[in-house]
Amino acid sequence: MERAKSTTNIYGGRRLYRWLMRYAAQLTFLALLFIVLSLATPVFLTAKNLINVMRQVSTNVFVACGMTLILISGGIDLSIGSVMAMTGMVSAYLSLAGIPFFVCALVGLITGGIAGLVNGFIIANTTMQLFIVTYSTQIILRGMVYVITAAGTLRLTSEAFLNFGGGSLGPIPWPVIYMVAVIILSVLVLNHTRLGRHIYAIGGNPKAAEFAGIDMKQVKTFIYTLSGILSALSGLVLTSRNSSMQPSIAVGFEMDAIAAVVLGGTSMAGGQGAIAGTIIGAFIIGFINNGLTLLRMDSFWQYIVKGVVILIAVYLDFVKSQKLSKA
Amino acid sequence: MGTCLLEMRNIHKRFPGVYVLKGVNLTLNAGEVHAIVGENGAGKSTLINILGGIYPRDEGEILIDGKDAGIDSVLSARRAGISIIHQELVLVPYLSVAENIFINREPLKHGLVDYTTMYSDAQKFIDELGLDIRADERVGGMTVAQQQMVEIIKALSFNARIIVMDEPTSSLTDREIEALFKNIRMLKQHGIGIIYISHRLNELSEIADRVTVLRDGDSVVTRRIDDITNEEIVKYMVGREVTRYYTREFTDPGPVVLEVEGLCSNKVKDVSFSLHAGEILGFSGIVGAGRTETIKALLGLDQKTSGEIRINGRRVDIDKPSDAYALGIGFIPENRREESIFPDNSIRFNLVIEVLKQFIRGIHVNTAKEREITEKYFHMLSIKAPTDETFIKNLSGGNQQKVIIARWLATNTKILIMDEPTRGIDVGAKAEIYELMNKLVKQGIAIIMISSELPEIINMSDRVIVMKEGSITRELGRDEISQENIMKYAV
Q1: Residues of A with CB under 8 A from a CB of B
Q2: A210 contacts in B (CB within 8 Å)?
């Protein structure tokens, strides 16, 4: 075996080159987007706008990181948007009842954790189709939110709550700081723990994972619970930024999460993928959303353009992998 | 044997970075079974894929009945009368036999599928071959042997004159192999030429008329099967004298390391046996006899209804596989692709997956240690791969198996269970694995070897346990091991 090719030099040239090649299509696309938008409108390339984009992207990154782990394991979580709404609702009610924000946030995170735990428990202990399980959770939770709020809006009054997602630490928005923490956590779990390897194994070949003695239940329960907690975090930040909670908040959010992960090169079939790709994917979507808004595009046209752009980005990655397999 | 039906002349084929076929010549007569043998990577699959129109050839000609067959696509190959039955059968499991036979050319009536005609036509083909299957049977529920027959019928329905069979017997029982050979002989009588690819040299003398050996893209020799011995074939395949195919130095067994008493599950009845350090205990029996099921019950993969297991004299409870692995047992399943490998992950990932504890503590990964472990086994087992980052799915069967063996060796296993350890592996790699097994037992490891290959069982085992219909019928000591004895108790 030739040692030199892959295993020497953890830092530096060789590895960085491979990393760049892996995300070549996405990075190129991101760069192009950046350039096009900078030229299309002067507002784009301002500090204010870019910081805003980071703030907006953060809510997707939280759930996309959880979704990355789940997709690598060969699963899917469609309940994310509803968990966000449920968390927003619970914490908003508590906050309006005068309870200190810290407690509201904690309860919110626990709520998300419980929702994720329920998902994880069902998925780990039955052979029910994943799609159906999380889809049902999605509908049930959303329904509960509508019922409990009687479809009304809750306006936040707590300073602390509003500051959580809307405030900043100096020039850096708080959500960006949470985002960095979540990214580090996710990378650690995926690449630096035994659990991370088990996640790849379960997605790569579930039967082989079972035969290898991997505790499938434990792994699955963990990733769905984590996804629930990250959804809760995202729900808190989103509610905070909106300074209010409507029952329709975050509808369809899971699709942007999945899109970010898939754009980043992770396959829905499971077994491979990485957080880095997801982050790039989330920023691609974030820039698209931001660009379309700045260009004052009609929100219905935004749908069309966004869909087309995502299709192009995925196609570029497809072309790249075709070229690589012929090389 | 009849006239020259097919001639492949001077076939060259290059893929990016590798020169696969370097001027291969092959002829096939009507009514002949022409075997092609060669190690993995020798070019067999590429050659037949070119014949089947799946790959274009770079140079060379393919002549049928002396004329250019005009093969440049799968469709044109089909029209020329060529049908390929791949090792991985390409039937649609949820559809019926008839639907599979007529897939993409279903008979139509008024623009809609004419099922009546389809089923009756299919049944006609089936009856011609004298087979006991119904045209409306779902293919997915059939045995591999029956599915193969469906593929043969499909080929015949295309008026195939040349049928290529790639490793047709690897998943068949002995009885099914007999039935297959009977059908092959019948095809021969109809003047059909058959190209037969197999690793099982012992079968060739029974069914083949001529044999061609491929090595590194060259057709090194073509002879009538009666004019060449197995040893000579192996020598041509490997390019050097393979003095020892089976490596086994028999010594006195060590102390008992594993005792199984009264093991029962819903597939296995009252299985009891013991295993000594330094021995290879062979498990023989026809497919479905309960050998793999015994192991699955032992490891907790199947629910066991009763039974006691003792390791080194101490009673142990094994409810799930990780319990067994923690006790020093290792298990190499029979289906690499479905049950062992993580295809889209690197060799390194696959190799170290059972010993993560050795180099991952909490969130700290000791990459140097990981590399050390990987390299150790790369060298020990002579694993051939560009780097350890290569995806395991890109390795040959033999090298994949070595990685899986390494996976368990890394755990310091004392009891290694190998289910069909050399299935689908070429001659060279097989010899290496036998050598390895011998080395392991010399170090005191105990091996349970389930195998359907009688020569393997006979040459490598210290003792043999024969199973039939879920129970042990007989335990054979060293001097009692023979083909007759095993067959006597297996059927």
Answers
A1: 1-3, 5-7, 10, 188, 191-194, 197, 200-201, 204-205, 207-215, 267, 271-272, 326-327
A2: 301, 321
Burial (Cβ within 10 Å: 0-12, 13-18, ≥19) of residue A235: buried
Q: In what order do the strands lie in the sheet with B446-450?
A: B329-332, B415-419, B446-450, B280-284, B463-468, B471-476
Q: Are B291 and B285 in contact (CB under 8 A)?
A: yes
Distances (CA, A) of B207 to A177, B198, B201, B425: 72, 11, 10, 21
pTM of this structure: 0.82
- Predicted pLDDT of residue A11: 42
Say what the pLDDT of residue A8 is: 37
Q: Which residues contact A277 (CB under 8 A, 6 or more apart)?
A: A22, A23, A26, A261, A263, A264, A265, A266
Strands B280-284 and B463-468: parallel
Q: Tokens 């779990």 belong to which residue?
A: A189
Contact B387 A7 (CB under 8 A): yes
The model's pLDDT over A223-266, given as tens digits with 9 standing for 90+, comes to 999 999 999 999 999 999 999 999 999 998 999 999 999 889 88
Q: Report the C-alpha gap between A194 and B322 in whole angstroms.
A: 15
Q: Which amino acid is at B22?
A: K
Instruction: Express each pLDDT in A20-67 by its tens digit.
Output: 888 888 899 899 999 999 999 999 999 999 999 999 999 999 999 999
Tell me: the pLDDT tens digits for A156-203?
A: 989 999 999 999 999 899 999 999 999 999 999 999 999 999 999 999
Of A192, A205, A214, the CB nearest to B364: A192
| ipTM, interface predicted TM-score of the complex | 0.87
Burial code of B125-157, b = ≥16 C-beta within 10 A, e = fewer?
bbeeeebebebeeebeebebbbbbbbbbbbbbb
Nearest-CA neighbor of B416 among B299, B303, B318, B306? B299
Q: How far is B187 from B182, CA to CA, in rounded Å?
A: 9
The answer to whether the beta carbons of residues B195 and B74 sit under 8 Å apart is no
The b-or-e profile of B31-52 (16+ CB within 10 A means b, else e) is bbbbbbbbbbbbbbbbbbbbbb
Are the CB atoms for B273 and B443 separated by under 8 Å? no
pLDDT at B357: 93
Nearest CB partner across the interface for B387, out of A5, A193, A213: A5
Residue with tokens 């050598």: B435
What HEC string does chain A produce? CCCHHHHCCCCCHHHHHHHHHHCHHHHHHHHHHHHHHHHHCCCCCCHHHHHHHHHHHHHHHHHHHHHHHHHHCCCCCCCHHHHHHHHHHHHHHHHHCCCCHHHHHHHHHHHHHHHHHHHHHHHHHCCCCHHHHHHHHHHHHHHHHHHHHCCCCEECCCHHHHHHHHCEECCEEHHHHHHHHHHHHHHHHHHHCHHHHHHHHHHHCHHHHHHCCCCHHHHHHHHHHHHHHHHHHHHHHHHHHHCEECCCCCCCHHHHHHHHHHHCCCCCCCCCCCHHHHHHHHHHHHHHHHHHHHCCCCHHHHHHHHHHHHHHHHHHHHHHHHHHHHC
Quote the pLDDT of residue B242: 61
Contact: A272, B344; criterion CB under 8 Å: yes
Give B391's DSSP letter: B
Tokens at residue B149, please?
A: 């027959």
CA nearest to B211, candidates B232, B180, B185 = B232
For A204, the closest of B342, B357, B389 (CB atoms) is B342
> Alpha-carbon distance B384 to B378, whole Å?
8
- pLDDT < 50: residue spans in chain B: none
